């Protein structure tokens, strides 16, 4: 089955300790919704707030995320789904789409030699 990285974007600083009980309840339901659509979350992580990020560009090291934006990467997970259409249906149900968004990207598979 195809695998996708789903990047979760939330309003900065995206502190997981600030999640509301309603949002947490939606997250708790999300796993079942993924299964109902034929997908499976293989692994996932929430990130600490964007204020804890350190960006590196060449020799320059700066505090803060790589790109300053209203929304920042709050976490990610690896999704296994039959195809991109199913992966997108699953991603649309993620509660982050309420006040932020998600990005779905197929995982790179090197060409067979």
UniProtKB/TrEMBL annotation:
<dbReference type="InterPro" id="IPR005545">
    <property type="entry name" value="YCII"/>
</dbReference>
<comment type="similarity">
    <text>Belongs to the YciI family.</text>
</comment>
<feature type="domain" description="YCII-related">
    <location>
        <begin position="59"/>
        <end position="108"/>
    </location>
</feature>
<dbReference type="Pfam" id="PF03795">
    <property type="entry name" value="YCII"/>
</dbReference>
<dbReference type="InterPro" id="IPR011008">
    <property type="entry name" value="Dimeric_a/b-barrel"/>
</dbReference>
<protein>
    <recommendedName>
        <fullName>YCII-related domain-containing protein</fullName>
    </recommendedName>
</protein>
